[in-house]
Amino acid sequence: QFCRFQKCLAVGMVKEVVRTDSLKGRRGRLPSKPKQPPDASPANLLTSLVRAHLDSGPSTAKLDYSKFQELVLPHFGKEDAGDVQQFYDLLSASLEVIRKWAEKIPGFAEPSPGDQDLLLDSAFL
């Protein structure tokens, strides 16, 4: 009995399965896990993210700072429509850059467009 037990263990059978005689018909082996190749290696994913970042960002030559006025500090507490509009424009431009970047991330296109918007909007706030 002991020799047979040792042979069973030597060929990869599980000790508990051999002793209790469970999983009959499967030759005493535990069910194997299905082997699935990973979708993408971490290096490939990182490369894709960096490439998406570089492709989606505006080039520095195309940036136009003329429409934004420099903030003058002495007018604390005063908030006019121009400041709010300038903030809104900057925020909208930033969100658009992030949206273009996210569209280039592998797997981001899988959810519905509404879900994509929800993901971006909730992450942006």
UniProtKB/TrEMBL annotation:
It is found in: Cytoplasm; Nucleus. PROSITE patterns: NR_LBD. The keyword Nucleus applies. Keywords: Cytoplasm, Nucleus, Receptor, Transcription, Transcription regulation. Coiled coil: none annotated. Gene3D superfamilies: Erythroid Transcription Factor GATA-1, subunit A, Retinoid X Receptor. This is Nuclear receptor subfamily 4 group A member 1. Residues 41-125 form the NR LBD domain. GO terms for cellular component: cytoplasm; nucleus. GO terms for molecular function: DNA binding; nuclear receptor activity; zinc ion binding. InterPro entries: NHR-like_dom_sf, NR4A1-3, Nucl_hrmn_rcpt_lig-bd, Nuclear_hrmn_rcpt, Znf_NHR/GATA. It comes from Equus caballus (Horse). Residues 23-43 are annotated as: Disordered.
